[in-house]
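Job type: complex structure
Entries:
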Amino acid sequence: MSGTWITTRAWLLMLPLLIVMVAVIGWPLADTVHLSFTDAKLVGTSGSYVGFDNYVRLLSGNAFGRTLFTTTFFAVVVVTTEMLLGVLAALLLNQQFHGRTLLRALLILPWALPTVVNATLWRLIYNPEYGALNAALTQLGILSDYRSWLGEPGTALTALIVADCWKNFPLVALIALAALQAVPRDVVAASFVDGANAFSRFRFVTLPYLAGPLLVALVLRTIEAFKVFDIIWVMTRGGPANSTRTMSILVYQEAFSFQRAGSGASLALIVTLIITVLAVAYGTIVKKVAGSAA
Amino acid sequence: MSALVVDHIRKSFGDVETLKGIDISLESGEFLVLLGASGCGKSTLLNIIAGLAEPTGGDIRLNDRSLIGVHPKDRDIAMVFQSYALYPNLSVRRNIGFGLEMRKVPAAEREQAVLEAARLLQIEPLLDRRPSQLSGGQRQRVAIGRALVRNPKLFLFDEPLSNLDAKLRMEMRTELKRLHQMMKTTVVYVTHDQIEAMTLATRIAVMRNGQIEQLGTPEEIYNRPATLYVATFVGAPPMNLLDVLATNHGLLVAGSETVIPLPPALLAKVPQGRNIKLGIRPECFRADAEGGLPLTLRCEVVELTGPELILSGSIGTQRLVATLSPRTRAASGTDVTLALDTEALHLFDAESGQRLNVD
């Protein structure tokens, strides 16, 4: 069989998938790019060409900068906390103890819950009138009066961060636990005989095996955290006073609340660009790490 | 004073008893090989000596100090693993020096020790590489180097050569022997390879089902196996076993008319009327029939390997194998008379499998 035929056949076999991808990703993307250069409204006018007006207005406005900062802050804090908690949980669940299997199963629960359920649950916990958090804190004497955790600009973002960490650290823990089980027992045994303490053992034995999988978790979680929408939409809708407004919320508001389809599309493209840069950067790092480990 | 004393060590996992009271006493500088098939408990015993597993009962003493409850790092032992167990993201230099680094030995002193070990193992050019950049043989040298620099009282080896190819395994075996002769440190070495056991050991403990079948020098294990198991486990091709019955004239091979005539003094000590297994190592047959006990067998297959000729034949219904000089003339389908020395006969009680000490 000639090389050209093999290549042709490969393309033929991929063709159905390519058609689907062009239809559901390529075409909408092209349409969004087109839309972003118009002043189209969501209903009614299809808009006229306005060049880079949408981009200039958005990038020079207050909302964009502030939202980008909120999103970055949210992503950095959430991902860092989830990585730390996840690795700690995995280390703990990798020990031998009674009830380990049950605990491992329970660990998955927060992550397995639909985000909307999780968000509703946390909204109940944070409820200013009958929330469990208020009850616990006042009964412990830490707080004198009930507070509206999601209603105050100072606490809303933190409250969201806690909720998101609770939901997503199990994913990191699960990936880390799988990696921990791949650490060769002999190397661990050798470190015991060599006299390594717990920290050295983690640093020189465990971490090298954890690094690759954790990097994958980091990539996944950073990108997800950057485009976070549902948990925030259910809990605060970006408020109060836009204190929890992230990029995806801003896109939604622009396109659907204010019905400005053209500038909504521009904003969506900016978010896509940022995420693409992140993904490519991470991809390069992952390749490098994988290369040095081989 | 014994360097290492293993005093009635027992180990159970739940209801399963993997070690049923092991007793070993080693002099300083001895090379003990724990030999046995997988699952016999030899690695468990090694892990207990290393401190990686706790025994259910018994005591381990190194230079008269009990090791029970002592952390592996404080036992003054070094261990080499089958999988090499190198630290993947450290250079060869730091891998070798890791034990010293953890013990806070000053950098200059550490470097000196690492260089010396590297020179001894001929891996100096590899010091700045990572384990992933080394071949299997090189990795094993690094693993041995890591044990050497510690200058421990006891070396433990857990099947260190079984991941290497045949040629490299032979080279490393010689290398290990050379190192041991030079360092004179006490060694406990686990393997299922009888050639490794025979060539390296000053003493071999053949283990089976969590017990020691026989503990002795390689010569004793080979020449005077204490049980049927030891007799067949050591030696390749394995020892021939024939069912025989002691009669007034000699040993009657079951299922045939053949009687192996024994000298009267010897025959007198053989219990009459008991089922006996007669063991003969294939390499103990001689083609020249003069001056030995004659044994005629039907030659079935002849294989010339180069250095020797392997003859497979039978006496009645019982099969046996002889390895002879390549110059031997034998044709399949004919009767061949071979000679045996009385020392080549091993008699075992067929029921208990124990050696009958008749000589």
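Summary: DSSP finds twelve helices and no strands in chain A. Residues 50-293 of chain A form a domain with the MetI-like fold fold (CATH 1.10.3720.10).
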